[in-house]
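Protein of interest.
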Amino acid sequence: MTEALLAALVFLPVLGACLLLLAPASWRAAILLVVTVPLPFCLLPLTVLIADAGLFEMALAGHPAPLGIRWRLDALSLLILWLNVSLMILVGLAASARFAPASVEGLRFWPLWLLLAAGIHALLLSADLFNLYVTLELVTLAGIGLIATGGSGAALRAAMRYLLLALMASLLYLLGVGLVYAEAGTLDLYQLGEALEPGLLSATALVLMLAGLLVKSAVFPLHAWLPAAHGNAPGPVSALLSAIVVKVSIYIIWRLWFWTAGDWQLPAPGLLLGLLGGGAILYGSALALVQKRLKMVVAYSTVAQLGYLMLIFPLSNLLAWQAAGYHLVAHGLAKAALFVAAGNILVSLGSDRLRRLAGLDQRLPMDVFTLALASVSLMGLPPSGGFVGKWLFLQAAYEQGAWGWMALIALGGLLAAAYLFRVLALTCFHPRSHGHSTRLREPPTLASLAGLLLALAAIGLGFASAPILGLLEAAWPGAMAP
C-alpha cells in the first residue's frame, strides 16, 4: 500500500499531463481535479508511517540498489512533499483564473504544471545521484516552459537565459557524477557515505556537483537568471519558482553535504558556503530596496532569503538544521503569497510599477492584505513562521558564540523590513490621487483568495512549530555535530 501511495505521488501528475494533451477541452478541468485532489490524501498515511518508523525505502520493479532504482522517504523529504502539494493546490487555484483549463493557453500551461509536480516529487524520493540528475532536469525544463507561457519578449528572454545557464549547471553536475562513479563504483546517495573517501578526485567531484546545483538554486553570486525569470513569468509561475523550484537544488546540496560527505572535515568550504549566503542576504536586500517594480522587489527578496538556507553549513548543529528546514517551508508559503498577490495587482492595473500602487489598499484590499501578512513572515516578525525560523538561527549562532552570524541574521531582518515597508507605505499611506492610473480590472476572487490562504498559512506556521520541528529533528543527519 505504501509503495502504491509513493507511486501515485509521481505518476498521477504524469498521467494527468498526458491526458490533458489528449482529452477534449471540456474534460480538462475534471482531469486536473482527479489528479491533484488525491495528492494530500496520499501524504496523510505516509506521514503516519514516517512518524512511527522514521524511514521508508522501496526498490522500483523489485531491483535493489546499486543496479536498481531506489526510492527513499524520510522526514525531510516528507516535509518538502507537503510544501509542494500545498503549493500546487493553492497556487493552482490562482493559476486557474488566468489559464482556464479549456483554453488554448491552458493546454500549454497545465501539462507543464503537472510535469513540474511529478519531477519535484520524484526528485524528493530519489536515492541516487543519476536519478537526482534526471528528475532535476525534468523540474528545470518544466520550469523554463512555464516561464515562457508569459508570452512577452522579456519572459522568453528570461526563459532562454535560464535554459542556457541550467544546461551549463547540468553539465557540471553530471561531470561530478561521473567522477563519483569512477571513484566509488556506486551512485546510491546513502551508500556513498561509506564508499566515498575524501581525496582529490572525490573533492573535485563534490565541487563540480555543488557548483552546478548552486547555479540551479540561484545562490549569490550565481543568481543571474533568477530576477528576470521570476520578475517576468506569470504570477503563479513566479510563485512556484521562488517557493519550491530553486529549493529542490538546495535540498540536493544538503543531501550531498550531510549524507554523502558527512564524515569529511570541511570547515573551510562550509564557511565559504555560509559567506555566499551572507552575501546573498546583503546583496539581494540592497537590490530589492532600489527596484521600481513590485515583482522585481519580490524576486530580489528571493535572492536574499535563499541566503539563510546556506547558513546551515558554517553553523552545522541541530538548531541550525531545524532553522533552515523551517525557513524553507515558511519562506515558501510567504513568497508564494507575495507573488500571487503581485500577479493579481499586475493583471488589475496593467503594471506593477511601485509609483502606480498609491491608494491600492482601498481598491484591492484583499491583495494588499495578503502582501502585508506575507511580509510579516518574510521580515521575521512574531507570530509568523518566518519568526520561528530566524529565531532558531539566532539561537544556533548564539550557542556557538558566532556573533558575526547573529549580526548578519538581525541585519537581514531589518533590510527585509526596509524594502517591504517601502512597498506597503506606497500602497497604504499614499492617497489615491497620487496614483498615475485610475484603470482597474478586478482580479478573480479565487486568485485573491488563494494568495490570502497562502499568507495565512505562513502566519499560522508560527503556531504549529512543534510537529514540524519534531519532523526536522527526526531528519537530522547523524553526521552533523550536536
User: Anything to note?
Assistant: DSSP finds 21 helices and two strands in the chain.
